[in-house]
């Protein structure tokens, strides 16, 4: 067992924990990062499969994600644009695949009008919200106690419009059925991305990717940490704490520190035993944030055959097994990669199938319903399965159950003595995204530095500028 003494110990080497560690070490503090897995990156994870780059976890960046943009600028990481040329495919509830162009789904004019009405309503609500404080929205309690499913139907009689709008937040973002979370949680998702318009615009929200891959961002940060800082294969299962500091117990490293950044997803807080136990409020709060569930389907072909047919690869099919598909070919690769998404109850169905062969057959058939027979024969087929990952337990991220956001949210970012919580799932802007993880990492570092150095913390700091830039501003 290695016994270390540091100013700060960080638990979790995902983008949030690593960003916090990077900022703290740049500010001259000694840091140790204890990571459960044998790799950095957490919910960002990239593998090569038969020569193709597969982003098993997070991958896209959108123009509003300026916290992440400032980090990659600092690291010298470039981005590339997702392939977007050509027509899209929409699969109707009856199962017809319609090729279309433009922003509107090819549905009845009255449904387009209803969808636009709902989009406008969500835009208005999002504009009234400070994403850092969604519980201060003038209608917070009302919106947090109605499910998004019922909220949509209270505002429109058009079932297709409700399903289509539901898709953008339920299957598309929170990856829970729309009856499982509140309208306030849905408005937060929109507000965290700038507006609902941004969320429904796939060219905005799924705009660009990292040339290093998204996991590459964490790898590059880790390279810049001083020696003897990062310790992989060290799950922390025991944390002693008092006003004087903490002792974090990893598998073969124990760290005594003045402060701890707990940078694991909120659903895993209770995986750690705290001595003494956390206060009542945190023990209760942490039971109300749960992971969504989504399967990311990766299928690699000899060529991006859909492009030859004038298609972008973008497909939408609310209420179908595979709800969205995109061209996911990595920068410079000649093969063609499709990524499909299977969310919540549809994901349950896929995992309950008997064998991998059956899963492959069912999923490819569902994708072929959009893009034709050639879809059935990929050279690589892989399903991202974060639900089976002990150190994540779902995808993409955690959100509150009905009523939880306005009840527990106001104190979710308060530190408990020396313990600071840092996760993309606690962010306002960039909520549930790598951008939010980076912003939270920087903010946690700033709060700890203020405590350690006896200076004041600027509550308005949004985590976009690095702490050095902020100090020099
Ligand atoms: C399939 C998928 C697709 C996604 N797509 C996108 C996308 O396109 N764009 C985007 O911006 N975001 C996307 N996301 C979300 C994004 O990946 C997360 O928001 C981000 O990784 C969160 O960073 P984090 O540091 O807060 O947490 P994590 O990335 O979860 O990192 C937490 C770390 O803590 C470690 N850990 C857990 N428990 C312990 C313990 N007890 N002791 C030590 N270590 C522990 C974990 O192993 C992990 O490394 C996606 C996520 C998934 C799963």
UniProtKB/TrEMBL annotation:
Family: Belongs to the flavin monoamine oxidase family.
Sequence positions that bind FAD: 16, 35-36, 236
Obligatory cofactor(s): FAD
Domain Amine oxidase residues, every copy: 16-449
Protein name: Putative putrescine oxidase
Ranges in coiled-coil conformation: none
PANTHER family xrefs: AMINE OXIDASE, AMINE OXIDASE [FLAVIN-CONTAINING] B
Residues binding substrate: 341
Keywords for the protein's UniProt record, in alphabetical order: Oxidoreductase
Superkingdom in the source lineage: Bacteria
Gene Ontology terms, MF aspect: oxidoreductase activity
């Amino acid at each position: 067992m290695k016994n270390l003494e540091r100013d700060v110990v960080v638990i979790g080497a995902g983008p949030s924990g690593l960003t916090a560690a990077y900022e703290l070490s740049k500010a001259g503090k000694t840091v140790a990062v204890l990571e459960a897995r044998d790799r950095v990156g957490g919910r960002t994870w990239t593998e090569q499969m038969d020569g193709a780059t597969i982003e098993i976890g997070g991958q896209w960046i959108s123009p509003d994600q300026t916290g992440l943009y400032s980090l990659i600028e600092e690291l010298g990481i470039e981005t590339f644009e997702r392939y977007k040329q050509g027509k899209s495919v929409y699969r109707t509830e009856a199962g017809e695949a319609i090729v279309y162009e433009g922003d509107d789904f090819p549905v009845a004019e009255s449904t387009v009008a209803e969808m636009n009405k709902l989009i406008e309503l969500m835009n208005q609500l999002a504009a009234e919200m400070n994403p850092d404080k969604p519980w201060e929205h003038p209608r917070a309690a009302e919106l947090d106690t109605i499910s998004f499913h019922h909220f949509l139907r209270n505002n429109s009689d058009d079932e297709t419009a409700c399903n289509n709008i539901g898709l953008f937040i339920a299957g598309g973002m929170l990856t829970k059925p729309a009856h499982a979370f509140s309208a306030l949680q849905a408005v937060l998702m929109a507000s965290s991305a700038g507006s609902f318009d941004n969320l429904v615009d796939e060219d905005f929200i799924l705009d660009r990717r990292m040339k290093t891959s998204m996991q590459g961002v964490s790898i590059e940060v880790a390279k810049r940490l001083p020696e003897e800082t990062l310790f992989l294969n060290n799950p922390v299962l025991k944390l002693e704490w008092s006003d004087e500091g903490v002792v974090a117990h990893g598998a073969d490293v124990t760290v005594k520190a003045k402060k701890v950044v707990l940078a694991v997803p909120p659903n895993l807080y209770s995986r750690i035993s705290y001595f003494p136990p956390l206060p009542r409020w945190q023990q209760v709060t942490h039971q109300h944030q749960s992971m969504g569930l989504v399967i990311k389907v990766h299928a690699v072909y000899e060529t991006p055959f859909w492009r030859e047919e004038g298609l972008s690869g973008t497909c939408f099919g609310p209420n179908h097994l595979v709800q969205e598909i995109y061209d996911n070919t990595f920068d410079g690769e000649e093969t063609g990669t499709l990524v499909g998404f299977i969310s919540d109850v549809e994901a349950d169905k896929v995992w309950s199938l008997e064998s991998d062969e059956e899963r492959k057959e069912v999923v490819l058939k569902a994708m072929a319903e959009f893009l034709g027979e050639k879809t059935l024969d990929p050279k690589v087929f892989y399903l991202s399965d974060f639900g089976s990952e002990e150190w994540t337990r779902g995808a993409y991220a955690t959100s509150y159950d009905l009523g939880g956001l306005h009840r527990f949210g106001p104190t979710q970012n308060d530190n408990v003595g020396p313990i600071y919580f840092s996760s993309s799932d606690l962010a306002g802007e960039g909520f549930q995204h790598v951008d939010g993880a980076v912003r939270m990492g920087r903010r946690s570092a700033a709060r700890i530095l203020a405590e350690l150095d006896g200076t004041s913390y600027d509550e308005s700091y949004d985590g976009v500028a690095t702490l050095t830039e902020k100090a020099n501003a």
